[in-house]
Amino acid sequence: MSDLLHSLRHNLADVQQRIARAAQAAGRDAQSVTLLAVSKTFPADAVRAAHAAGQRAFGENYVQEALDKIQTLADLRASLEWHFIGPLQSNKTRPVAEHFDWVHSVDRLKIAQRLSEQRPDNLPPLNVCLQVNVSGEASKSGVAIAEAAAIAHQIAALPKLKLRGLMSIPEPAGDLDAQRAPHRELRELFERLRNDGLALDTLSMGMSADLEAAVLEGATIVRVGTAIFGARDYSR
Ligand SMILES: *Cc1c(COP(=O)(O)O)cnc(C)c1O
């Protein structure tokens, strides 16, 4: 077994165990949490090795980097999912609509409208999450909590999108209680929207440092990069 495959197997098992422990503590089925492996800055070979280790869902932040990997890994396309999770400019929506299965980072109606218009007719609707700026969100992207309901209803009406739920990137926090607070805010908004008639099933929250807090608050997708692939080197 190659060193890369060996270390990815080890790291994936470790992260799955963290998810399983947190799910158990929350009285949840660990199967209700999907692990999204965030492969940004890592080469196609790393994704191929993670796939060989059993990982199926991959998250990418940068359009061109992702398109290169999707093309390199075209032979695996039927057995993996590509999720776009980075900031999306309106002039970059077309390749995302054409090549991804999910977009977690929809943060305005215009982006959603373009993705819907540009989603090819031969593909199923694009799964999307509305990114919400919960209190103190580090990236400052995402809609305000007060605006979320109106935008969510408009996105849900677009023909080639399927609004699955909500996503957030809270500011890093040290202890578990501080990590849980913004995740709880997102979950409460999610519950309000569901009570309001939106058929949502996805809460995309939690990363390497706070995935336990996210699972305790109801995350259904955790987005994990560093704990799987190691530290990122942005200089390359
Ligand atoms: C990079 C990134 C992640 C993964 O972060 P890690 O701390 O490396 O686990 C998750 N979500 C988004 C939106 C990201 O950009």
Class computed from helices, strands and strand pairing: alpha/beta
Strand percentage lies at: 15-25%
**Nearest-integer average pLDDT:** 96
Give the count of structural domains: 1
Q: Count of DSSP E strands?
A: 8
Low-confidence stretches: none
Name given to the CATH homologous superfamily: Alanine racemase
Q: Rounded to an integer, what's the Rg over CA atoms?
A: 17 Å
Order of helices and strands: HEHEHEHEHEHEHEHEH
Domain Alanine racemase N-terminal: 11-232
Cofactor: pyridoxal 5'-phosphate
Organism: Paraburkholderia monticola
Pfam family, one: Ala_racemase_N
What would you say about this model in short?
The protein has 236 residues and is of the alpha/beta class. The chain contains 9 helices and 8 strands. The protein has a single domain, classed as TIM Barrel (Alpha-Beta Barrel).
Description:
By secondary structure, the chain is α/β, with parallel strands linked by helices. The chain has a single domain, classed as TIM Barrel, CATH 3.20.20. Strand 6, helix 7 and strand 7 (202-204) form a beta-alpha-beta unit. Helix 1 crosses helix 2 and helix 4 (93-99) crosses helix 5. The chain starts with a helix and ends in a 7-residue tail after the last helix. The protein is globular. Helices cover 43% and strands 16% of the residues. It has helices spanning 3-25, 44-52, 63-72, 93-99, 109-118, 145-156, 176-195, 211-216, 226-229, and strands spanning 34-38, 57-60, 81-84, 102-106, 126-131, 161-167, 202-204, 221-224. It has an 8-stranded parallel beta sheet with strand order 7-6-5-4-3-2-1-8. The protein binds pyridoxal-5'-phosphate. Residues 38, 40, 61, 85-86, 169, 207-209, 223-227 line the site of pyridoxal-5'-phosphate.
